[in-house]
Amino acid sequence: MPPKTTVWKLDRHSAAKHYLLQRYLQAWLPIMGSWKHRLVLIDGFAGPGVYEDGQPGSPIIMLKAYLDHTARERIKSEVVYAFIEQDKRRVASLKAEIAKLGELPANVKVQVIADSYEKAFSGVLDDIEQRGAKLAPTFAFLDPFGYSDAPMTLTGRFLQFSRCEVLIYVPIRTVNRWLRREGQENAMTLLFGTKEWAKAVAIENGQERIRFLHDLFYEQLKRDCGLAYVRSFEIVTAAPNSGYHLFYGTNHETGLLKMKELMWDIDPVQGRRFKDSTRAQEITLFEPEPDLDPLRDALRAHFGTEPFTIDDAERFALIDTPYIPRHLKKPIFKPLETEKKLKIVKAKDGRRRGTYPSGTVLRFL
Questions:
Q1: Do 140 and 260 reside in the same domain of the chain?
Q2: Which of 127-131, 173-177, 228-232, 260-264 is least confident?
């Protein structure tokens, strides 16, 4: 339920979400801004822009990701921010927090929209579709209070445009608690964009039911929203099985790579911990010294004893596992080659042992 006060206390899982948001935008902005005329960043549930202790809210974090960027001069685009918030008190607070940032650069445009996310964003998409226009590369952060406030159908309309990405928060355990309560049917259908959620009602085992709901949301992002790549990350800052999930969706491998690299680089000592929860059989905690046995086993199962290129292996790790390409060469392939469990089938002239340039062909023994 949304707080009744204008501002509220920052909890640990929200702090973890905001840290991830900031770090990802710091990577996303210079990549997209170096060659696109306009970038759009949307906060669908913007809030007051500040917490009780003075910590910045998500809109201010999104603005400062650009304003404080060390490579800001490389971002040539017009950067357009749209902050949607329907509570008038919070709108006033947010505008005051933005004003504290001082005069913004000429290429930064900020619009605070005093309306509900569903109504405001629907209007934007209606206008674009009626004009036959294209949506500029857009990143949307959706962090609603109510689990039905960000309808899957609206998310799907937005993501049909090219170069649009979404980071959406879904409290799966909360959804599970309300699943069997009378009067929740419409809310559940809005959240998932399908009535298939009702199948979960008959699942007696609580963990299996939660997993079903998680997997349904994941599949809907891919199926109804047309996303090529979706990963889910559970925030484990609050509890080992918190049920707080962030779903990231994109159609571009570069975005997927940057998000996963960021996850592996987040310092868990500072209390910001996540695990990849995309597939039940592959749940992986992001740690400085990861357990790479699952990745090694997955590579063997996928490629068998057939030849494969290093490029094939890197793409498999990126798309089909919780791991990233940097986990392959030195950590896995070099020891296997030394142990004569990996054969180099084809390589460029002058290749040094334990190195795997693009095009290198390997085979497990």
A1: yes
A2: 127-131
* 75 and 148 share one domain: yes
The reported pLDDT for the residue numbered 3 is 79
Q: Same structural domain for residues 244 and 146? A: yes
End-to-end CA gap in the chain: 56
- CB–CB of 80/40 below 8 Å? yes
Domain residues for the domain of 262 are 12-285
- Specify whether 269 is located in the same domain as 309: no
Residue type, 173: R
User: What are the residues whose beta carbons fall under 8 Å from the beta carbon of 333, sequence distance 6 or more?
Assistant: 310, 313, 342, 356, 362
Q: What share of the chain is helix, strand, coil (3-state, %, to 5)?
A: 45, 20, 35
pLDDT at residue 236, rounded to an integer: 83
Cα distances from 214 to residues 146, 155, 244, 279, 356, in angstroms, run 16, 17, 11, 10, 37
Mean pLDDT of 13-38: 86
Is there a contact between 89 and 70 (Cβ–Cβ < 8 Å)? no
Last residue of a domain, one of 253, 269, 285: 285
Same domain, 96 and 182: yes
* Statement to judge: residues 342 and 267 lie in one domain: no
> What is the per-residue pLDDT across 141-162, written as a single tens digit (0 to 9) for each?
999 877 667 778 788 777 777 7
- Where do we find the tokens 């990802």? 24
Query: What is the gyration radius of the CA atoms in the chain, in angstroms?
Result: 22
- The residue type of 8 is W
Position 5 in a domain = no
Confidence at residue 133, expressed as pLDDT on a 0 to 100 scale: 63
CB neighbour list of residue 265: distance below 8 Å, 6 or more residues apart: none
Mean pLDDT (the chain) is: 89
Query: What is the count of structural domains for the chain?
Result: 2
Q: Tell me what pLDDT residue 153 has.
A: 78
Q: Of 250, 285, 320, which one is at a domain's C-terminal end?
A: 285
User: In this structure, what DSSP letter does residue 296 have?
Assistant: H
What lies within 8 Å, CB to CB, of 180 at 6+ separation is 201
- Residue pLDDT, tens place only, 103-131: 999 999 999 999 998 888 888 787 777 77
